[in-house]
Amino acid sequence: MLKKVLIANRGEIAVRIIRACREMGIRTVAIYSEADKNALHKTLADEAICIGPAPSNKSYLNVKAILEAACLTGADSIHPGFGFLSENANFAKICEEIGIKFIGPKHELIELLGNKSKAKETMKKVGVPVVPGSDGLVQSKSHAIEIAKQIKYPVILKASAGGGGRGIRIAYNEEALKKEYDIVKQEAKVSFNDDSIYIEKFIENPRHIEIQVLADEHGNCIHLGERDCSVQRRNQKILEETPSSVISDKTRKKMGEVAVKAVKEIGYSNAGTIEFLVDKNQDFYFMEMNTRVQVEHPVTEMVTGIDIIKEQIKIASGEKLEYEQKDIKISGHSLEVRINAENPSKNFMPCPGLITELHLPGGNGVRVDTAIYAGYTVPQNYDSMLAKIIVHGKTRNESIAKMKSAIAELVIEGIDTNRDFLYQILENKNFVENKYDTSFIKKEFNM
């Protein structure tokens, strides 16, 4: 078993990893920027090292400083959490080369699956259904037009190295395609320093459903069911639930089997998520694979009773999975919402600042993952997510009622949050009746 884990992250996910390590008897090292000198993860860890000033590129993305911190403290492993360096193949490679265990897959697979067009080609080869589109990258604007004529409009242009909802544009005709092509190329260059793009058929009004997988280093793999992540704003997830009430048991079984088969064939290990688009006919198509723990992993933990962070650490320690697929039972229903420091009435403008008063909800089946406290100043330098509220109920309706109660109980004073907006979603008739898709926010709230 690993003995000392450095957490190359901040905020609630750093706190989440520290707590899991504590329960396993593993010592922890926190890294923090100058802006996070009063952060909770710094306080909870056994050791903490400042790795630079506030900007991410000088701290949480500073590979040299992070590795020096690991060596200085004698950490034998690094957990990257999500975001920052979690899907950076070069970081994982350096860890491997200097003998520090990267708690995630091998760098070759991070690199392969991080490139969206290569990932699509790989999944196609191992029998995973993919959305019709370009075979590899689009070479020119005329090439994009030619492909669009073959697969029919609407089409979607995507940055090959993209993520976080950036570098994605939809075109409903040739004129729009010409315009969006230039925009996506520019966005891709600015955001990812890689202007390569690919094109796919745009699946209208789909559900965004992902399969959580766990695979050890001995060839064993299981899935932990699906998560429905269709409530999104600008391709950013806002609310997630499991199980999905829109897919049949037959589709659920098939998606799980396809995901496990793909993971085994590419030789993947650790936790991962394969994301699919599901159309009105329950046909599903591969979108991408995330080679890290997801923000929304707690809903899966709530319905399976399996601690995904602990499983990541056990796998990285070389242990075999304790479970077979037949051992995985889904119990009840779980919902998660993301509480962000932002003002929805001002186009979701970020709202950093001092939290003057805080009350977190509780009760049976209510979980809050957070790193905030009364008197904490939310820095302006990082993602606006403050907390995740997760609930578990016997049914979907019970989960919705429980989440409404939890959100109503939440008090965060001093800064603006999206609390009321989330409550509106939960009260929306189409959401309650499960009549929604990835365009839900745009349609129902005129965004």
Task: Walk me through the structure.
With about 450 residues, this protein is α+β, with helices and mostly antiparallel strands. It folds into 3 domains: about 5-100, Rossmann fold (3-Layer(aba) Sandwich), CATH 3.40.50.20; about 130-200, ATP-grasp fold, A domain (Dna Ligase, domain 1); about 205-445, D-amino Acid Aminotransferase, Chain A, domain 1 (2-Layer Sandwich). It contains 15 helices and 22 strands. It has helices at about 10-25, 40-45, 65-75, 90-95, 105-115, 115-125, 140-150, 175-190, 250-265, 295-305, 310-315, 395-410, 420-425, 430, 440-445; strands at about 5, 25-35, 45-50, 75-80, 100, 155-165, 165-170, 195-200, 205-215, 220-235, 235-240, 270-280, 285-290, 335-340, 340-345, 350, 355, 355-360, 365-370, 375-380, 385-395, 410-415. Helix 12 runs antiparallel to helix 13 (about 420-425). The protein is globular. The N and C termini lie far apart (about 50 Å).
Number of DSSP E strands: 22
- Structural class by helix and strand composition: alpha+beta
Second rung of CATH, namely the architecture of the largest domain: 2-Layer Sandwich
For the residues shown, what is the average pLDDT?
96
Q: What's the level 1 CATH class of the largest domain?
A: Alpha Beta
**What is the subunit organization of this protein?**
single chain
Please outline the helices and strands.
Layout: E1 4-7, H1 11-23, E2 27-33, H2 40-44, E3 47-52, H3 63-73, E4 77-79, H4 89-97, E5 101-102, H5 107-114, H6 116-125, H7 141-151, E6 155-163, E7 166-171, H8 174-192, E8 197-201, E9 207-215, E10 221-233, E11 236-242, H9 249-266, E12 270-278, E13 284-290, H10 297-304, H11 308-316, E14 333-340, E15 342-343, E16 349-350, E17 353-354, E18 357-359, E19 366-370, E20 377-378, E21 385-393, H12 396-409, E22 411-413, H13 419-427, H14 429-432, H15 440-444
Parallel strand pairs: 1-2, 1-4, 2-3, 4-5
Antiparallel strand pairs: 6-7, 6-8, 9-10, 9-12, 10-11, 11-14, 12-13, 14-21, 15-16, 17-20, 18-22, 19-21
Helix pairs in contact: 4-5, 7-8, 12-13
